[in-house]
Amino acid sequence: MNFGGFVPLSTVDWHGRAVCTVFFRGCSAQCFYCHNKHLQRGETRVSTDRVLARIEENRFLVSGVVFSGGECTEQIRALRRLAADCRDLGLKVGIHTNGAFPENARNLIGEVDKVALDVKAPWTHYPAVTGVTIARQVEESLALYREAHAAGTLPEFEVVHTVVRGREADVPAVAAVAEGVNLVLQQGIWGRVEPLTLVEFQTLAD
Fold first, then answer.
1. N or C: which end of the chain has fewer CB within 10 A?
2. For residue range 25-34, what is the model confidence (pLDDT) as tens digits?
3. What angle do CA 138, 141, 142 make, to 5 degrees?
4. Alpha-carbon span 18 to 10, nearest angstrom
C-alpha cells in the first residue's frame, strides 16, 4: 500500500472507541483546507503485513481500527485486505472517506462497521472546494451508504462536514443532503483565517 502514517492510539477518530488509525497516502481531491496536504501526493510503499503487525502490537489497547488518508478507498485491494485481517483479529473497522469512488463503496458494504463520509460542500460548490468534479460520485456513495445503514449491513454511518470561516452558509445545504444521518461538524483550519468559536459552532448546529 502507499502508506501515509500510523497512530497507535486515538480517542478522536471514532466517537466512543479507542482505535488505531492508519493513513493512506494519495487523494484525487485537493481540498483547499486539507489538514493532511502532505498525504495528497507522494509514494511510500509498505506491505500490508507490516501495517497489520503494527495494528496487532496495539490490539489489546483498542477495540477498532480507522482507515483514513489521503483517501483510503483509492487503494481498495489493500484496504479490503487490511479490513478483513482486522476483523479476523476481533477489531471493529471504520473508514473515513471522501466518497469519490462509489464502485468501491459497494465493495466495502458488509466489510466495514462504520463509514464517516465527507460531504465537502453543496454539490454545485464541489469544484471550487475540491479542485475536481466528483459531486455526482459522492452523492451516489452517500445513497449507497445510507441504504446499507438503513438495511443494517452498515452498523454505523455519519456525514462529516468541515466548516471554514466564511463558508458557514454551506452548512444548511449539507445538512439537507445528510437528513436522517448523523452529521458531524468539524473545525476547518486554513491559513490565517480565524477558526470558529464554540458558540458559533453551537449556533450552526442549532
1. C
2. 999 999 999 9
3. 85
4. 6
Q: Are 157 and 146 a contacting pair, CB within 8 Å? A: yes
| DSSP structural state of residue 168 | T
Amino acid at 42: G
CB-CB neighbours of 57 under 10 Å? 11
- 102: Cβ contacts below 8 Å, ≥ 6 apart: 137, 140, 141, 144
The number of residues in the chain equals 206
pTM of the model as a whole: 0.95
Q: Measured at the alpha carbon of residue 78, what is the angle toward residues 19 and 64, in degrees to the nearest 5? A: 15
For residue range 126-184, what is the model confidence (pLDDT) as tens digits?
999 999 999 999 999 999 999 999 999 999 999 999 999 999 999 999 999 999 999 99
